[in-house]
Amino acid sequence: MCVVELFWKGNVAHPHTSHCLGSGDILISCLGDPAGNGKGGFILLDGETFEVKGNWEKGDKVPPLGYDFWYQPRHNVLISSEWGAPKVLADGFNPADVERGHYGRHINVWDWSSRTFVQAIDLGKGSVPLEIRFLHDPAAAEGFVGCALSGAVQRFYRTEVSRGGHGRRRSSAPSSETR
């Protein structure tokens, strides 16, 4: 895989998380576009040749930021998190950039089979959700995401109200002093 191929075949850049799919292909999340703006897109690679096949997502609607992801085909869902716009990250962390909206605050729900963006779940101002995981039980339609700036761990789960909808519950570890 060549970075230029990401630009030309997918209009994405700054690859981050990779997962091998059951099909043998490789799915990679990207942080942004070639200009360094945020863009929560994905690139799909051939698992044998590593040739860039193109974007995984279908349609024009994508989240404004990307970072980590995890998928659960049994429940027809992929959940992605948001970090920050690559051109802002290059200058180092500045708390004012959080206020400007250059850092994430959502987890994003995708329909696995249609590869479309379904829903953004707002985790709150200053949350910056990063690492995301489903439970290790493939029958479970729930998981957790760690939020870097807020220090919270958020639980997400499928709701019964809407088959495609997801909800969240916040939990955080009590602060403690270390000596």
TrEMBL record:
| Protein topology in the membrane | Peripheral membrane protein
Taxonomy, superkingdom:
Eukaryota
Q: Does the keyword RNA-binding apply?
A: no
Reaction catalyzed: methanethiol + O2 + H2O = hydrogen sulfide + formaldehyde + H2O2 + H(+)
To which pathway does this protein belong? Organosulfur degradation
Q: Where in the cell is it found?
A: Nucleus; Cytoplasm, Cytosol; Membrane
Q: Name one Pfam family in it.
A: SBP56
Tell me the Gene Ontology biological-process terms attached to this UniProt entry: protein transport
Q: What is its EC number?
A: 1.8.3.4
Q: Which GO molecular function annotations are given, in alphabetical order?
A: methanethiol oxidase activity; selenium binding
Cellular component terms per the entry's GO annotation: cytosol; membrane; nucleus
Keywords attached to this entry: Acetylation, Cytoplasm, Membrane, Nucleus, Oxidoreductase, Protein transport, Selenium, Transport
Q: What does this protein do?
A: Catalyzes the oxidation of methanethiol, an organosulfur compound known to be produced in substantial amounts by gut bacteria. Selenium-binding protein which may be involved in the sensing of reactive xenobiotics in the cytoplasm. May be involved in intra-Golgi protein transport.
- Name the family the entry cites: Belongs to the selenium-binding protein family.
Question: Under what name is this protein listed?
Answer: Methanethiol oxidase
